[in-house]
Structure formats: C-alpha cells, structure tokens
Specification:
Blueprint: E1 4-12, H1 15-20, E2 32-37, H2 51-64, E3 70-71, E4 77-78, E5 82-90, E6 96-102, H3 108-147, H4 151-162
Antiparallel strand pairs: 1-2, 1-5, 3-4, 5-6
Length: 163
C-alpha cells in the first residue's frame, strides 16, 4: 500500500480572532488553512521542492516571522499571527491512517528572532553612523558655500545636476 503525506497549516491572521481563541466555544472555526499534499499518482521527481520542504519552510517562516506577510492558498496576502501544523498519512483512497501534530523544537523561534534582531540592530547602527557622517559633511559644505558667498552659483549647479 502506498501512503502519501498531507500537511495542513492552520493559522489565524487577524487580531480579533486571536483574542477570541481562548474563549470561543469552537476555536477550530477561527482558523484558516493552507494545505500541502503529495500527488495521488506516483510521479517522477521534477526538481521541485518536496511537499515536506514546502510545508516546513512555510510553517517555520510563519512561526518565526509573524510580522511578515505571505500568500495563502488563493494567493491572497495573509499575515499569520498564530499557526500550527499537522502531518497526515493518507492511504490510496485518501483516508487518514495517521495524524501527528508538528512543532518547532523549543526555543527555535527565539534563536531565529534573536539573530534577526542582532542583524537589524547592526544595520540600524551602521545607518545612523552613516547619516551622522553625511550630516556633518553637509554642514561643512553649507558653511563653505556661505563663507565664500557662493549660494547663487551652487543653486545654479544644483539645478543643472537635477536636469
């Protein structure tokens, strides 16, 4: 018997439903889904990413980067605030023979977010230093232009350069 995999990512992409998650009588109704499923017929490898890779990559991105936007099944923009993933094994008729809840190892999101935050802080600090240096240089040029009464010539030069 040939088994195939289906991954289902259930997600909430709005603050209202996220706030109601704990108190809603049927919380599963609040979730939207994105499904990754292996084809029914055995096919030759096409070079595309596997179903496992697509599902896990999406799940990790949605779990680790909740401030990003993504595309849902219908290629509409979505902004997942909370998500979970299940893996099912299906028989040839499509019946579920096994289901498992998938989760990232403890601390994975924190490790990724810490690395991302360190990179962002470094880029921000570098940009601040660059802006400060450019502001100092600009002030020097302005002082030079003023000292030598070259405002008119500089305005003409600037207009020429902007054409």
């Amino acid at each position: 018997m040939r088994l195939r995999k289906r991954y289902t990512i259930e997600y909430i992409d709005n603050e209202k439903d996220l706030a109601r998650l704990e108190t809603h009588p049927n919380p599963w109704e609040l979730f939207k889904t994105k499904i990754f499923e292996e084809p029914k017929a055995k096919e030759v490898y096409t070079g595309e990413e596997s179903v496992d890779g697509k599902a896990w990559r999406t799940f990790m991105l949605w779990s680790i980067c909740p401030d990003q936007i993504f595309l849902d099944n219908a290629n509409r923009v979505t902004h997942p605030l909370y998500c979970k993933m299940f893996m099912e094994l299906l028989d040839e008729e499509g019946n579920v023979v096994y289901e498992d809840y998938c989760e990232l190892p403890a601390g994975t999101a924190h490790v990724f977010n810490s690395a991302i935050n360190r990179q962002a802080v470094k880029k921000r600090d570098t940009a601040k230093e660059t802006v400060s240096a450019l502001e100092t240089e600009l002030a020097t040029y302005k002082e030079f232009i003023k000292k030598y009464h070259a405002e008119k010539e500089f305005d003409e030069f600037r207009r020429e350069m902007l054409k």
